Amino acid sequence: MKIFLKNQELENNLLFLQNIINLYFEDSFVLLGEGANTLSFDIKNEEAVRVTGYLTLDGQSYTATATRTETDKKHVKQAIAETLVTMLTDCTGITQSWGTLTGIRPTKLYHRLYRQGLSHEAISGQLKQDYLISQEKLDLMREIVHTQNEAIPDLYELGREVSIYIGIPFCPTKCAYCTFPAYSILVHKNDVPEFLVGLLHEIAVTGKWLKDNDIKVTSIYFGGGTPTSITPEDLKILLDQCYASFDMSAVREVTVEAGRPDTIDGETLTVLNDFDIDRISINPQSFTDETLKAIGRHHSVKETVDKFRLARDFNMNNINMDLIIGLPNEDRTNVRHSLEETRRLRPESLTVHTLSFKRASEMTRNKEQYPVAPREEIMQMMEMTRAFAAEEGYKPYYLYRQKNILGNLENIGYSIDKEYSLYNILIMEEMQTILGIGCGASSKFIHPETGKIENYLNPKDPKSYNKSYEHYTAEKIKKLNHLFKAED
Ligand code: SF4
Q1: Cα 409–261–338 angle (5° rounding)?
Q2: How far does the signal peptide extend, from start to end residue (predicted)?
């Protein structure tokens, strides 16, 4: 559907308006001009802001007004968003529990206000007024922020430390919803040795700089891809390099994604044991075999359970499991079954994702082959996971939202026994610099004082990485110098 915006002066806000409309009508476009479906705003900005929105869709007209006492750009935009959401709610009957919030990390917003000294009540009031966020989501944000501060008491003081992300771009097969760098290890087995040369270089150079400049490492996370796709021998070489290069004495947590059960065996677990690593992920996504086949995971439910038990035998005491809500052809019965199986295994952490149709994924390219449950049912499934978590004593401790996520919902990380992933908190809340090392690894340079963020992405495919890792390493060292030395 095309919707024509009449206000020329809002040309720079087309995408912002379209993102809101897409929450109600997928695949809609907002263009400047005239047509059957129109949108316009009457904006009065004097001592206060008053915006009146007009929307005509399929011959029906809607209008709404919003006001703000502050008159800067940000508040004008908020008022525009509010009128649009109100009109779309009138039109569709759909209430957005996240209100007008798109593209902002909800708990980051909450932390910002909390750090300014506002009480929880004041923060709730302000977020409700500015973004129309529901009470349920505000309560969730409050609980998460509280838990994060409990998990990392010095959370607001970690800006002068960094965390490390190491990207290994190999997996057994590519999942249909995936857009991460994940090359089939079967096809790319011979690329691993050359890739490791670059990776070991990056680790050595970065580790030396951090040691020389006395910058501590808070946490290390091995992701990708699935790091356990490489051989146990290669994994050992990689871990040896990390332990030799970084000052491990201050590292509070090391996590290795072993997400695909088909990459786990006794030899790999022995290597992890040797390095005292006991925090891993083993991700079922679903406990229905047909679903696993449909999404291209090529392992069975039995293998997930067997590998989980094997990991326990090897003293893995802090295991995370991911589940995805809204997988193709799944309904509440499948989710109930997945939760029952999760109850039996009782991992320390449970991350509940809502399926997101990422632009470059196989699932989005061939959407008709992957039918998903209607919005109402997705909401009910999510509710089931929340109720399950509460019954079983899992506390929510981080959340994030993605574009094109089903039902405009969120992904929530839960944990029991305070086995929180510190890395996940640090990256979600953007509290410190994350150094991305390896293929497709994304770095976030965060200024320790101002919080200003600069993203920097390593090449996604191993061939480009192998050719240019020295350049990318040098660039990151320059950025580190700028970030941490400029203010000395
Ligand atoms: S296991 Fe993870 S990284 Fe690998 S293909 Fe699946 S979603 Fe992508």
Answers
A1: 45
A2: none
Q: How far does the centroid of ligand 1 lie from the alpha carbon of residue 150, in Å?
A: 31
pLDDT digits (tens, 9 = 90+) for 342-353: 999 999 999 999
For residue 6, is pLDDT > 80? yes
Report pLDDT digits (tens) over 393-413: 999 999 998 887 888 889 999
The protein residue with its alpha carbon nearest to ligand 1, atom 8, reads 178
Which residue among 165, 166, 168, 171 is best mutated to probe the pocket of ligand 1, counting the most ligand atoms within 8 A of its Cβ? 171
Residue nearest to atom 5 of ligand 1 (CA): 174
Q: How far is the CA of 260 from the centre of ligand 1 (A)?
A: 8
Mean pLDDT for 23-48 is: 91
Measure the CA–CA gap between 55 and 122, rounded to whole angstroms: 33
Q: How far is the CA of 352 from the centre of ligand 1 (A)?
A: 16
Give this prediction's pTM. 0.93
Separation between Cα atoms, residue 359 and residue 59, nearest integer Å: 31
Best residue for ligand 1 mutational test, from 173, 180, 221, 303 (most atoms within 8 Å of Cβ): 180
Q: Which residues line ligand 1 (CB under 6 A)?
A: 171, 174-175, 178, 180, 182, 224-226, 259-260
- Report the C-alpha gap between 87 and 65 in whole angstroms: 9
Share of the chain above pLDDT 90, in %: 89
Give the closest residue to 263 by CA, choosing from 233, 299, 288, 236: 299
Ligand 1: atom nearest CA of 179 is 8
Distance 41 CA to ligand 1 centre (A): 43
- Taking Cα atoms as reference points, which of 118, 225, 122, 211 lies closest to residue 167? 225
Instruction: Evaluate whether 465 touches 194 at the Cβ level (below 8 Å).
Output: no
Cross-sheet strand order for the sheet of 60-68: 29-32, 2-5, 38-45, 49-57, 60-68
Residues 385 and 129: their CA atoms lie apart, in Å, by 29
Domains (range + CATH), the chain: 2-92 (3.30.160), 106-151 (no CATH), 155-483 (3.80.30.20)
464 within 8 A of 193, measured Cβ to Cβ: no
Q: Is the CB of residue 410 less than 8 Å from the CB of residue 365?
A: no
The span from the first CA to the last CA of the chain, in angstroms, equals 54
Contact at 8 Å (CB) between 400 and 410?
yes
Measured in Å, residue 313 CA sits from the centre of ligand 1 at 25
